[in-house]
Amino acid sequence: MPMPMPMPIRIVEFTGGTLRVLEQLPEQLPPKGFLWVYLERDHLQADLPVVQKGAHALGGSQVLDLHVQDLANREHPSSYDFTSVYDLVIFRRLATDAEVRAEVPHGLPAVDSPLAGFARVRSRAVGFVVFDRLLISVHPPGCYTADTFMRRFLNDAVQSDGASLGRTRLPTSAADLMLRMLNVMVDSYLELRKELSMELEAWQEDLLSPRGRAADWRAFMTARAALQSLNDLCEGQHDAMQEWLDAQREQPSGQSTAVEREATLARARDIVEHIERVSRHVHRMEQGAQTAVQIHFSALSHRTNEVMRVLTALTAVFLPLNFITGFFGMNFEFLPLIHSTAGFLTTVAVMAGVLVMVLLFFWRKRYLARVR
To answer: What residue ranges do the domains of the chain occupy?
Structure first.
C-alpha cells in the first residue's frame, strides 16, 4: 500500500513531459522522471518519519541526522554537503517584506527614509536534498520560491484523472528543478540591487549637495551593515554552488543523458555568474558609499577653510585701522595732528585709503572670494 502522508507535504511527479500532484508518496519512482517532495520547515519534525521512509524507499538512503538538523536550522548559512547517495544544498533566499515585518517588531523603516530598502536585506534558509530522481526541499512558511513553481506548473495545467496534459520546459531532473528554484532566489537579489542603487545614489546626492539637509548617518550605518550582510550572503551562496558544481563535474553522469547533464551544468554556471554579479555590485556600492563619505568630509573641510580664510582676511583688513586708531588714541600731549583742525579729516582719509588698498589687494589675491 502507498505510504500515508500528512497534508503539509506536497508531492509532484514529473514524468514523460507531464506532471501530476500526488496525495501520497508512491511505493516506487515513475519509470521515467522524478519526484519532488516539498514541505515547510515548521512541519519537518512532525513529518520526518514519512520523509525518512520515502527517502529510503525512493532515494536509496535516509537523510542523515546531522543533515536533518541543518535543514531544521533557520539560521544555517548557505552550504553544500554530500553523501554517496544524495547531495545537501542549503541556500539563503531574500526575505519578503511580510517576513521582515514579522521579524522586526516595529516593521520597516519609514517610507521617506533615504535608505529604507537596505533594512530589507534579510534572508531565509531553504534546504534541498537531491537524489538522482528524488528532490526533497524544506522551505520557510509560505515560501514564494516553492509557490512560484507550484503556480507555474499547475495553474495552467488541465487536470484529467489527477494528471496534467503535456507541458513544455518542465524540469528534466531533480537537480534541474533545484537549480531553477535557486535561479529564482538569485534573481530576487539582482532585482534588489536596482532599488539599493537608486536609494544609495539619492543619499549620495543629498549628502554632497551644498544646500542639502543634514546627513542621516544612522541610515548610512544601517546601509553599510546591510551591504556587509549581503556580501556575506553572496560569498556563502557562491561557495555552496561552486562546490556543488565541482562535485557534479567529478561525478559520473548516472542516468542522465549527456545533453541533460550539460544543460544542468550550464544552468549551475549561470547561477554562479549571477551570484558573482550581485557580489561585484555590492562591492561597487560599498566603494561608492565610502567615496561619497570621503568627498562629503573633504567638501566640508574645504568650506570650513574658506570661512576661516574670509574671517582671517577681514581681520587683516581691520588690523591697520585698529593700529591707526590705537596710535592716535595714546594718552600723550604731543602727537602729530592731535591739535590740528584738519587732523581728524586727514586721519579718516588715511584710514579710508588704507582700507581700500587692503581690500583691493585681498580681492586680487581672491582672499575674499565668495564662500560656497
So the answer is: 10-194+213-298, 300-364
